[in-house]
């Protein structure tokens, strides 16, 4: 029996939706995650590579991203960092690091 999408899929959907709401043509180039746990929490560490055409809207979105709220059923975004920004031709590649924790 399927339990629905995992935290990685939920995070990807939330990021795309968040960008679309702000008029940003975002694509996910690659995404992966590994399980993570502490003494009190369980979750995942995510690495995502995103691409979008450079624009003032994209710059504002990137600046606000670490403080943004995302609705992930059964999970919370505990930490989000923009690890790198690389201009490649007419696009900007963003590498994100995200920590999600499971809601219990």
Please tell me about this protein's structure:
By secondary structure, this protein is α+β, with helices and mostly antiparallel strands. It is 23% helix and 46% strand. Strands 1-2-4-3 form a 4-stranded antiparallel β-sheet, covered by helices on one side.
Question: What's the quick description here?
Answer:
The protein is α+β, with helices and mostly antiparallel strands and 104 residues long. It has helices spanning 7-21, 56-64; strands spanning 27-37, 42-52, 75-88, 91-102. The relative contact order is 0.24.
Spatial order of strands in the largest sheet: 1-2-4-3
What's the β-strand tally?
4
Shape: elongated
The major pleated sheet works out as: 4 strands, antiparallel
List the uncertain runs: none
- How much beta, percentage-wise? over 45%
Helix and strand sequence: HEEHEE
